[in-house]
Each structure stands twice: as structure tokens, then as C-alpha cells.
Amino acid sequence: MSANSTETIFPCPFSKGYGIPAQQAWLLLKVFLGYRLILAGLFIALFYSDKSTSLLGSYDSELFIHSSQVYLFFSLLSSICIGWRLISYALQAQFLIFTDILILTLIMHASGGINSGLGTLLAVSIAVGGLLIGGRCAMFFAALASLAVLAEQVFADYSHSFDSNSYANAGMLGASFFTIALLSYILAKRSEQIFQLADQQQQTITKLEDLNKYIIQHLQSGIIITNKQQAIQMANEATLKLANLKTMVVQLADISDFLSLAFQTWLTDPEQNFVLLQLPNQSEIHCRFMPLPTGHETYYMVILEDIALYNQHVQQSKLVSLGRLTASIAHEIRNPLGAISHAGQLLSENPLLSSQDKRLTEIIQNHSGRVNHIIEDILQLSRRTDSRREMINLKSWLANYLKTFFLENAVTSDIFSFSFPTEVLGAFIDLGHLKQIMDNLCRNALKYGNPQKGKIQIRIFTLQQSSCLEIIDNGAIISRENQNHLFEPFFTTSSSGTGLGLYISKELAELNQAKLSYYLTDDNRNCFRLCLLNAEQNLIDL
Q1: Domains and CATH numbers, the chain
Q2: Measured on CA atoms in the order 90, 96, 97, 99, is the torsion positive or negative?
Q3: Does the pLDDT of residue 320 top 80, yes or no?
């Protein structure tokens, strides 16, 4: 039988649902066993200490001493069985109660019968039996003890062992047994309800603790609990990721001296409750401080948040406002633009137009189409939805995407070269947004990347615990001045471009807490890098 406190015991076959924690049940059994050992020792010690005046064994000394010795022997034997758990709890408890009823009845008879007063010791055994084995079983023990007392009285009367009969005392003693059994049953039921309520509350508390730990550990915001001496008491996984740590440190200063100084400043000036922290991994962290009072000691909570989270929320608000404005403007422009385009098309069909006039109508059609393309891009901003991110296998997704891209754009895979790692790289992003970003980058690489000079390279890899994707082409090198405006809306170096493709791509990336950037490779090739959230380390947004 396990001693696990969460295990329950149902020892009595007559009980329905009665159960107490195993550890407490075995403890009660040991207490009762100690009582038996003391009682048996007292019987023997008092018998030998003063035989002439002692009531114990006054009628049959040999029966008394032998019964006491057997009582002591069974108690010692039970102590071994209980200590080593050699016998199940139910059998052990039943054995103790049955031997109590039998041996105490013999000791009572050897000491003068019911008039000796030793029959009251049976009441203790019945009460303990109700607590150890079950409330309803106490009624069975009460009936058994009453029959034992009545049988002893009938035997004494039949054998003329004593001068007077005590059937009335036997009946009253039996009635007291049933009264005690009933009280024991009520007490056992109350104990059962208390145990069940305590167990339910413990399970609820345990579930809440596990839920709190899970939420804290999987927040995207880093949580640090520290004391006034800046000793870190607890920190979640996001703290390790944001601070670029492999194992948790013991002091705030081990993360950053500037963070430690800012925390100390906040203790003296509570108004200074936030600070921007620049870590060696180039990530910018927003830190907030707040007190966390407890019953005995005041702790402090430091919340670390990646600036990318702020960018995501700001980006969502900006896109909503921008989308409403651009949708209104685009619709107002589209109506007269459609009329101009339609009129130009009808004019071009006039057979009396000169070649110079036809050229003018072609210009009208081309520029109407370009403006309409700009309007389509602008309307994408108004149709933007919140990202519905999901976990993907980046390698498998990219392979399927490229097959579709080659068919849609009528190109062959010979134009591209691929570099994929052997391990599985997971990412966490909206699939529709990722496709739109890749469409813009790959089409730009085809249009401006001079694929005739060399293959366009696509590779995926891991960088600082993020899954990254790069597209490298052989196009004209973008000047440093233009690099500063590369992701601005309507900025383009092409006469046919709208300047919205890269802007929309960057907006979509930030909406998914990803990062789209541009840099020159060591061999002076253009590279657009998209770093995504790692699916294996995705955390709950706060």
C-alpha cells in the first residue's frame, strides 16, 4: 500500500464512497496500535505488581495472563506488519478490531465479568473501528461486541461463574456500543466530506498553480521576480530569450548593469518605472518595474517586452486608420479613372485617328493602368486583417510555394538556387501574409535582380533562435541613401513601380512580429532577409 497522501482507502465492504487519504489512514492505524501496546503492557504490569488487591484476573488469573500475553503478542506482530506494510490496510485494521473484541471479552470475564467495568474498553475499539474502516462497519462491530458481551454473560450464568447475573448491564453496555457506533458513523461521514472538500480544493489550487506557471512561462513578455537586494527569485523562459541567456542568472546586474542601475533608481523615485534597455544581441527591450507585495516580504516584478510587440500593436492601429483613409481616397479616384480609361479605349478604336493620336491614347491606357495598379495596392492596406498565425514547417512550405510561384509566373526553377538545412525549421506566421511577402520579394528579384547574370539564391537558416529566409539577387546595388527610404511608401527607383510592394511587405512582417530587412552580402549582392518567430519557442502574447 502506497503512502502517497493523494491515495484514498475504501477498506469496508459495507461503505459506499467512504475514503480517507492513505497516509493519514496508516497514521491512525499506528496510533491505535500504540494504544493496544500500552494497554497490553498495563494489563501485565498491573497483574504482577499487586495480585492480592488487583481486580484484574480476580476470577481466573491464568485466563487473564494468557489473554494479556496473546494480546501483547498480536500487537507486536501487527507492529511488524504495519511497519513493513506486509498486509493490506483493510485486513490489518479488521484483524486489530476483531482481536480486540475477542481478547478484551476474555479479559473482562477473567476479571469478574461485566461488573469489573472492563467492558467499556470495547467501546474504544468500536469507535476506533468506525474511524479506521468506515462508519457503517462500526455498526457491525457494535453488533459483534454486543453479542460477545451477551455470550459472556450467558456462559457465566450457565456455568455459575459469578454470584449474580448482570443481563441488564449487558444490555445497557450493548446499547452504548450502538450509540458509540452511530456517533462514529456520523463523525466518519463528516470526516469524509471534509476530506473530499479538502481534496477538491487542493486539486483546484494545484490546477491554478500549474496554469499560472504555464501562463507565466509562455508569455512573450519576460517576467522577473526580485527582492530589494536585486536577487532574482524567479524568471520565465521569455526572459532567457529576450536577454539572450542560456541559463538564468542570480542578480539583475548579471543581465545588465544599466538594468540594475535603473531598478535602483526606481526604488528611490517610483515615477521612473520604465527604461529602454539595449542588450548586446542588438535587441531593444522595454523594461517596467512594479511592486509585488506579499504577506511577509515585498518583492518586485520586472517586465521585459520586446519592442517588436509595441511595433505590432502600433502597426495594427496604423493600418486600421490608414486603411480607412486610403479606401475612401482610392474609391474616389477609381471612379473618374475608370471613366478616363474607358473613354481612351473608345477613342483608340476610332479609325480616323492619326498615328500620333493613337500614340496618345496608348499613353492614356498605360498610365491609367499604372494608376489603377497603385489603387489596387492601396486598397490592400484597407483590406488588411489581423494576422492569424499558425505553426509551419518552413522548408516544406517554401518548397510548395515555389512550385506554385513558378507556374503562376511562367518561369523555371533553373533561375533559382536553393540552400535548405537538413534539420526542420519551424515558423509561426499568417500563411496568407507570408505568401504576399514572398510574392513581392520574388517578383522584385525576377524584375530587378538581373537573373541573366547569375541565379537568384533562396536559403533558409537559423539566426539568434529565429527562423530566417533570404533572397539574394544580382541587381544593381542600392545606394546607402536609398536604403534609408527603401521601405517607405511610394518610394521607388523604377519608372514602372508603385513603391508600395516593399512597404506592404514590411508592414505585414511587423504585423506578425517578424523582421524584414535589407543588406549587402560580402560579394556585393542584394539580400532581403525575413526573420520569423520560431515555432518551437513561440510564447503567449501578453
Answers
A1: 8-209 (no CATH), 219-309 (3.30.450.20), 313-382 (1.10.287.130), 390-537 (3.30.565.10)
A2: positive
A3: no
